[in-house]
Amino acid sequence: MHIAITNLLNRASKCPVACFLKVLLTVGVIYAIHIALFHQAHDTPYLSALVVDSVGVVAVLALAFHWSCNLRKDE
Fold this sequence. Notes:
single chain
């Protein structure tokens, strides 16, 4: 377990934006699932679509920054 935490901190120090976006993506997906399961009747379809769209934008940004960090790592 200690090695996994060390590797995670090492990755976060090399690409902090990508690591932050991955954490934000995880929280966003959990929140979107929570809204889909427990708040269907209270939310408008537009709000649900906005949440899903924002999670998609964060996913694309996380993927782009992760890819960018991998390119810098190979150099």
